[in-house]
Design goal:
Number of domains: 2
Number of helices: 1
Largest sheet: 13 strands, antiparallel
Oligomer: single chain
Helix content: under 10%
Strand content: over 45%
Low-confidence stretches: none
Number of strands: 19
Radius of gyration: 19 Å
Order of helices and strands: EEEEEEEEEEHEEEEEEEEE
Length: 247
């Protein structure tokens, strides 16, 4: 491990716009670093979700129809806006540079004038190398953080995922363990004008150190008609995992 691990419980993204004189703050749920073959790496952060809301009004706080809001962002650079409704035909999904106007519920739009991430890091973390350490961490209630790296087939570079491993499993009749991580963020598209547009929330599941399967968020057709935004297209991934525990 070449960099300190993120303490996701104490890390936040904040942004400000020209539409409302205030600053929202959202928790950071996961990170994805894209390193091209040449040039510098860029880290993108997935926020925790929130419900679409009217600000500082006495009632009718939650927008109707109800939507779930997330950002994937590189600080002071670019971001992907994800606003998910029950009906995917109403979803808003768009990539923007900091300073661009993003769409709003009232249709007027809002220019993003600040996009910042405050990161705090774990003071110490111990690598997990096998079943016994994994089992002890689970049963002792210790926090676990995962790091997954693999080649970026689209650019020839490297992808590094960092995420809290909150849902983990151990078997009692065999030395087997399993991680069900997510939502985290990873490239689900091969190319885009803005790198952030390649990224989507996803779940990552694995039980060995060199393999995983992921399912990205995408529009899924419903059998009775219409569509929703859910997780689909199970994809195998040859990669390298590291797990770390901390108190």
């Amino acid at each position: 491990m070449t960099s300190p691990l993120i303490d996701f419980s104490r890390s936040f993204l904040r942004f400000s716009t020209t539409r409302v004189n205030h600053t929202p703050r959202l928790g950071v749920a996961a990170a994805c670093t894209l390193t091209p073959p040449r040039g510098s790496a860029t880290t993108f952060y997935l926020t925790c979700p929130c419900i679409g809301e009217a600000m500082y009004v006495p009632r009718d706080l939650i927008h109707l129809p109800v939507s779930e809001f997330r950002l994937i962002a590189a600080p002071a650079d670019q971001f992907l806006l994800l606003k998910r409704f029950a009906d995917a035909r109403q979803d808003v999904l768009g990539s923007f540079r900091c300073g661009d106007v993003m769409p709003t519920h009232d249709g007027l739009g809002a220019r993003v004038v600040e996009l910042a991430v405050t990161l705090r890091h774990l003071p110490a973390a111990t690598p997990v190398t096998g079943y016994a350490e994994f089992r002890a961490a689970l049963l002792d209630g210790r926090r676990m953080v995962g790091v997954t790296t693999y080649p970026d087939a689209a650019t020839g570079g490297t992808i590094r995922l960092e995420y809290p491993a909150d849902t983990i499993n151990i078997a009692h009749d065999q030395e087997a363990w399993q991680v069900d991580a997510g939502p985290l963020v990873l490239p689900a598209l091969p190319d885009a004008e803005l790198p952030v547009a390649r990224l989507r929330p996803a779940y990552l599941v694995y039980n060995r150190w060199d393999y995983a399967e992921f399912v990205p968020s995408r529009e899924e057709a419903l059998s009775g008609g219409g569509a929703t935004r859910h997780y689909g297209q199970r994809t195998p991934l040859t990669c390298q995992h590291q797990l770390f525990v901390t108190d």
